[in-house]
Amino acid sequence: MATLRSLYRSDHADRQELNTNFNVDYVVHYRIPPGGKNEAKAEAAFVQLIEALAKVGLATEVRRGDDTSLLIFVKIASENLLKQQIYRYRVQDWLYGVRTSAPSKDLTSYFEEEPVVEAEKLRLVYLLITKPKAEGGAGITPKIGHWKYVCSVFPLHNHAFNRNWIKQWSTKYILDDSDINEIRDKFGEKVAFYFAFLQSYFSFLFFPAAFGFGAWLVLGQFSWFYAIVNCLWSVVFFEYWKKKEVDLAVQWGVRGVSRIQHPRTQFQFDRETKDPVTGEVVKVYSPLKRLRRQLLQLPFALACLLVLGSLIISCFAIEIFISEVYNGPFKQYLVFLPTVLLTIFMPALTTVLTNLGQRLTEIENYETQDSHQAALVQKIFVINFITSYLPIFLTAFVYVPFAKVLVPHLDVFQVTAQKFTRNGKVETKAFQIDPDRLKKQIIYFTVTAQVVNFLLEAIVPILKRRVFKAVKEVQEEITHKETPEKRPDPEEEAAFLDRVRNEAELDEYDVTVDYREMVVQFGYLSLFSVIWPLTACSFLVNNWVEARADAMKIAMSSKRPIPWRSDSIGPWVTSLGFLSWLGSLTSAAVVFIFSHDPYGPEGDPSNLKAWALLLSILFAEHLYLVVQLIVRYVISGLDSPGLQKERAERFSMRKLHLQETLGEELAESAAAADFTGGETITRAALEEEARLASVSGQTGPGQVFWQRQRGAAETIQIGRLFISETAAANKTKSS
Amino acid sequence: MATLRSLYRSDHADRQELNTNFNVDYVVHYRIPPGGKNEAKAEAAFVQLIEALAKVGLATEVRRGDDTSLLIFVKIASENLLKQQIYRYRVQDWLYGVRTSAPSKDLTSYFEEEPVVEAEKLRLVYLLITKPKAEGGAGITPKIGHWKYVCSVFPLHNHAFNRNWIKQWSTKYILDDSDINEIRDKFGEKVAFYFAFLQSYFSFLFFPAAFGFGAWLVLGQFSWFYAIVNCLWSVVFFEYWKKKEVDLAVQWGVRGVSRIQHPRTQFQFDRETKDPVTGEVVKVYSPLKRLRRQLLQLPFALACLLVLGSLIISCFAIEIFISEVYNGPFKQYLVFLPTVLLTIFMPALTTVLTNLGQRLTEIENYETQDSHQAALVQKIFVINFITSYLPIFLTAFVYVPFAKVLVPHLDVFQVTAQKFTRNGKVETKAFQIDPDRLKKQIIYFTVTAQVVNFLLEAIVPILKRRVFKAVKEVQEEITHKETPEKRPDPEEEAAFLDRVRNEAELDEYDVTVDYREMVVQFGYLSLFSVIWPLTACSFLVNNWVEARADAMKIAMSSKRPIPWRSDSIGPWVTSLGFLSWLGSLTSAAVVFIFSHDPYGPEGDPSNLKAWALLLSILFAEHLYLVVQLIVRYVISGLDSPGLQKERAERFSMRKLHLQETLGEELAESAAAADFTGGETITRAALEEEARLASVSGQTGPGQVFWQRQRGAAETIQIGRLFISETAAANKTKSS
């Protein structure tokens, strides 16, 4: 059986099953539950599934999956239907202002001008499969309700493209726009935005890496100059990205797609009302009710802080006790105790809290997938913030300033330890603050953890799949012995079906995970890199690998993602802004606390002037805000390819419309400047018209008034008379 | 001679000259300079003026103005030209996204559906007069360059409307939307936005007035509870207004008009280039050069602070010395010395600085009038901020906490005073902090100053006009005696011309002044009302009068304003946000410093715990920011008439377009929900098509794959077989 990894060996490059998808658009992975009653249900649902798909114009073929599942291959039955669908969605885009110009009505020439890309086709077919029946889709909702036997609906990888993609990227230093555009065409804008962000971030990292290296050589730790430059960099990067994001959205023609939102099928409405304006039936859920539920986020955040915080603090305290106070037997093993505790409990607690967050988000009951996702991301960010940064906060703002006060309270461990030792005495040494602790911790989080994380991400899924496959093979072997031989796959499809069965087993790609990693990383840089200026260097190396690893993850360890559109990196931009802002506070505090004495104030909190600390934080924060305003203003003034494109489109539209309404020769000049006034109206004609109007019938004070001077010539004559009279009067006066 | 005030006496209501404008759209006030050489120039320019106006289709009549000026009456010559112009501008609006739908091409019925309002007509005629010749206007730029003899170009008041307006408003407690809409139709959106803002602010004031009154009774001064509620209120008001602003803009059909910007005639470009995209010739001014000049704002702000600050501090010091230290002769007169000094120097310095600000803004050389205005408003705000709030800042944060330390340094006055007294001895008394000083000051600024300001605003212009008129009449009398009698005005026009001569003398209405007043007032409420909770009560009364006074100012003491459009209150919203935010800081600081001891810490700064003060400020500020986020989120979820209107327009447009492209019957359903898929395509037809396609020619692995199961029925049949096989296998396995 071909593992996916083996697909990328060069000798397999010309294997037929990898170079064709047999025109399959989607595969529906349909699980057959064991048990007689369920089987009947599954069969009935299967029939309905095929009928529903056929009804909306999708052709189907069914094949065996693994032992307990079917693979249903789906493709759009006619080219015509596809074009109709795409045309309609493009018209919708235009109506919502996503496209500047309406698609032309001549379909044949239109699709030659703006051909259908792979991502667009796949997106529309997916919508056709999953949209509710009332809106013209087949209404298939994987894993939910009636369709619970549908495990997944996924498109097939384009392995020819993937192979080429991975090969190109692994031999390239810098990714350029065309690389990102290729991803966009294959995997949609949502994934492309991630890579675009990663790429921008990577390019921006060159500066802090170089500057950080210099600072490390020259300025050392805790330099206020480094802190300022670092903050400034993070502001510039943040503002740059916000502009870049809009720019990309314009270039990709997706600006504003977040307005065309996909309704969540799980959304539960209080009542249906008719929209007073449009007469549409609208599903309403009381926003006040939602707000009340959203307020649960506060106790949720507190719970996270409490649960994760107490774990982190306990481990921290144990660690300090063992490494810096305890001096008895087994010390060399005991130092690993906190790490072991963290490794065991942290993932468990994080999972529990993440599930809780998911549950909360479901309770909040959003109407659209976007707002649901954004709310979930918020909660995930809270959890990640605590797990990632709290240990360092503890070291920097509790351990170093207050250690001498707090360490004696670690007696509790001593007492505990005494119970387990024979003579009731625990050997201790005099407590000494570890001056390098903070730096060591930063290095751990920014180097070691990144490497470990990368390995976990790259290797664990492969191992997992291997183990699963092994188990399955053993199971199948047992089954095969007992059951009649299944009919084999047709020869020309066998390899292809094997490959599809493999793809069906893969995880779904979740871009959120990758964003989270990058945003947390940005946080280390912004919040704490003043402690260890080499941080950015480590990230620079890490991110070069990261981009390739993520590409490999999509190409090899995941099902092909549904090519959703999006016009930004969504809620993550808020997180970035928050971290960048918080960086100004922490950097100021760290510099203030540690800069005078590189080892901190040696555990005596009274050495610290609290007001001076607060003042420097306050000052740094407001400096940050002012600088942000200025940077934003400057960046908003810059031109960009996206804005140019938009301007060009608007210009051509303006010209076109004016040609239609005003005629060719005028439009040429009118489109460029503002609209010209009365060139077509000659002066004489106007005067004539005015005179006619005034003569014909209407009389009254207005008419008499306007008839005193007939035409400009008379006005000029009378005016001249007045002027000379006035001048004469003036002369008399002054003489 | 009729004064304008007399126009509003009821007995004049039926006077003919007040009820008609003789169809005059604009009056050009043309000054004839004394002196032979200038006279010739003025005459030549006059001829060019009339010709330029005639060329763009404007009819003119000339009449005598006062002794040294002409009045040129302008109206658009033909109804047709007007409609053409308006149609073009509406098309432009549509192209820029201001209007949702394009104007229909049938002009006659179109103008019946959407008639021209007065403000629209006047705006277009003004544009026709003032736009550069290259863009189809007459290119008249009052007071500038070639047109320096043109004093002003102004529309005539609609006195029938004005009379009615003032009468209605003075008998009404609450203004409603229709009142604001009337203003919009007559004076344009820019003025209407001011009144809408004033009205919203007024309604919002009811809450702090009631709550403040309660707090004054129950909580007293310096209550943290009042401070929190007040901050919350200011956040809610600010966020509400930002939404209301957008809403009004949508309702008035001006959302986004700030994008259609009027170029500044004074803009000087570095070079002209062709836009790479559109080929338009664009005038470019280096943004870097502008940025460099914008940086001058920093020294400008510092200069303002230094100049105004030193004046304020000196007067403050003198005042304290005289009122609280000095005890010698003439004390009862000397206490007025600081007030006299302030009254003399403050307006002078403010004028100088404002002029400097204007000069700076000109140097910054903006391309559009909007950005110029915004930059100017910024500078005016800085000046006003200092003059309005610095005295209170001094009292609250310098005088009260540090007086005991600082007052001894006032010796300098003592020494000075000694020189002027005979015996060289100045009687002094022991210094005592005036505990009520802060409150007195707030009352002065929020009650006394408001009343004084109102009187100045209402009465000074009238006095000024009277004096001018008297001087002029005397002058004219002298002149008349010496010069030959002028021909009198024609009888039927005499009264009308008199009225126009009066209007020509009036000041131009500047809405900025009124905004400034309200924003500064909002600042007192947000920054300092915790010192005196009755502040809002005073403002409530004041603003009722203010709205009427401003209406009278427009109707009687000003030329009719050019009815410009605008889609917001512009740069003032930034100032409001800033003051609201700053309020959280100052309130926290004031409460912290004064709440323990109502008379402050009695001049001993060491009593204050600086870190606690800073901490409370820091806390208050961040609380404010969090609350703002929440309020913004909640308000963004609310529906509003404007949003409803927009939705309705978009809906009808969507429907219309779909009717055109898809045909009537489909559009009905498609417009409502998303687009339906394949209802028109029957299942059988699709399957047939797929089969045909697969049979006809194309063969290959894909074709064979899709031909295994012909149609959904076969797929179902095979699928069922697979399911039962699987089930059988499962049974065997489990048995």
UniProtKB/TrEMBL annotation, chains A, B:
GO terms for molecular function: chloride channel activity. InterPro entries: Anoctamin (IPR007632), Anoctamin_N_fung (IPR049456), Anoctamin_TM (IPR049452). Its main location: membrane. It comes from the Eukaryota. Residues 183-649 form the Anoctamin transmembrane domain. The keyword Metal-binding does not apply. The chain crosses the membrane at residues 191-218, 224-241, 298-322, 334-356, 376-400, 442-463, 569-594, 614-635. Pfam families: Anoctamin (PF04547), Anoctamin_N (PF20877). It is found in: Membrane. Residues 23-150 form the Anoctamin alpha-beta plait domain. It is a multi-pass membrane protein. The keyword Transmembrane helix applies. Signal peptide: none annotated. One of its GO terms (cellular component) is membrane. Keywords: Membrane, Transmembrane, Transmembrane helix. PANTHER family: ANOCTAMIN (PTHR12308). This is Calcium-activated chloride channel-domain-containing protein.
